[in-house]
Amino acid sequence: MRLSIELTELMELPHFDTGIELKVQSALLAGRQLIVVVLPDRDKSRAASGYLAQALEYPLVRLGLALSRRLIEVLPRRRPAEVLVAVRQIVEAQKSGGVVLDTIEVLFDQQLRQDPLGLLANVARNTRLVVMWPGAADGGNLSYAQPGHVEYRHYAQAELRHNGVEVILKEDRQYQ
Predict the structure, then answer these.
(1) What is the pLDDT of residues 58-69, one digit of tens each?
(2) 41 assigned to some structural domain
(3) Using CA atoms, how far apart are residues 24 and 30, in angstroms rounded to an integer?
(4) Listing from the earlier edge strand, what are the strands of the sheet with 136-138?
(5) Is 121 helix (H, G, I), strand (E, B) or coil?
(6) For the chain, how many structural domains are there in total?
(7) Is residue 24 part of a domain?
(8) Quick one: pLDDT at residue 17?
(9) Max alpha carbon distance in the chain (Å)?
């Protein structure tokens, strides 16, 4: 398995658009603390997150693995109470003004009983977060999973505004 990808290969990915980098940089310049990037192809989104982290000069954190490593030592009944602290520590350990977060699906695990967006907004108070969203965006709303699924989450545009979330889509649409 090859661990690196060349910039020229990334630029050839059908979903990747250098305009996304410019939109993220614009949102950062506007003072946004929590920026959510939604790309249609989740597998290739992971490669794009590496490029975006490099372009922004932010560390890339694969949250699923990092958080799982922290929580494995915690008793299952205590894990929900430890998630926010663990995520905050993971982000702060990067010692950077901003972090790109990918593989955040673990935050939707029902056993952890979290509000993923609220948790990310809380962490973003101290460190800027650029989050690769594993779900979809439609009409200014964010969602994860399908209605009826145990992990389904839907965030309306008003809730995103309340949490100070900037949503950047692969398409030329942008919602605040």
Answers:
(1) 999 999 999 999
(2) yes
(3) 10
(4) 136-138, 141-144, 153-155
(5) helix
(6) 1
(7) no
(8) 58
(9) 46
